[in-house]
């Protein structure tokens, strides 16, 4: 417990010192900002080089490295593209299968309905009574 309290006291003193000396705190942040600005500049430069711009300052080794990076990136992009296309093909095959099944079901319903209509028409024709009017004796 005593060690924990001592650690807390030491830590709180160092924190208080930072707060008491704002110039040191500001200087620390200025250094950090400058480092970040350099990193951003390097990344921007590298980005432009990957896009094929500002290559005048590159050596042969740098150009080979950029070429290899572009080829690796291209391989990754192509792999992802083929994966997406494969997924889409599978989805379309499933959709085709579903539509074929629905089409077959509708065709069966239409055929069934047509057969029912034919049967009803046949029944109606059978039920028609021959109502010829004959004048005179039958059989002549």
Q: Could you walk me through the main structural features you see in this protein, from its secondary elements to its overall organization?
A:
- It comes from Dioscorea alata.
- This is Transcription factor K-box-containing protein.
- The chain is mainly alpha-helical and about 140 residues long.
- The chain folds into two domains: about 55 residues, no CATH class; about 60 residues.
- It contains three helices and no strands.
- The longest helix has about 70 residues.
- The N and C termini lie far apart (about 135 Å).
Attribute tags:
140 residues; 3 helices; Transcription factor K-box-containing protein; 2 domains; mainly alpha
Helix and strand content put the structural class at: mainly alpha
Q: What kind of sheet is the major sheet? A: none
Along the chain, the helix and strand elements come as: HHH
Number of DSSP E strands = 0
Number of helices: 3
* Dominant shape: elongated
Radius of gyration: 44 Å
Low confidence ranges: none
Short description:
This is Transcription factor K-box-containing protein. With 140 residues, the chain is mainly α.
Give the SSE layout.
Blueprint: H1 2-20, H2 22-50, H3 60-127
């Amino acid at each position: 417990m005593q060690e924990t309290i001592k650690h807390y006291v030491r830590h709180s003193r160092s924190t208080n010192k930072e707060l008491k000396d704002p110039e040191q705190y500001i200087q620390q942040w200025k250094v950090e900002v400058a480092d970040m600005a350099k990193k951003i500049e390097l990344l921007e430069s590298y980005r432009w080089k990957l896009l094929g711009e500002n290559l005048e300052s590159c050596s042969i080794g740098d150009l080979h490295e950029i070429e290899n990076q572009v080829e690796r990136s291209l391989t990754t992009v192509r792999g992802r593209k083929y994966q997406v296309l494969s997924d889409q093909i599978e989805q379309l095959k499933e959709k085709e299968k579903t539509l074929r099944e629905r089409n077959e079901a509708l065709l069966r319903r239409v055929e069934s309905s047509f057969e029912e209509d034919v049967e009803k028409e046949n029944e109606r024709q059978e039920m028609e009574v021959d109502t010829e009017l004959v004048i005179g004796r039958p059989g002549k």
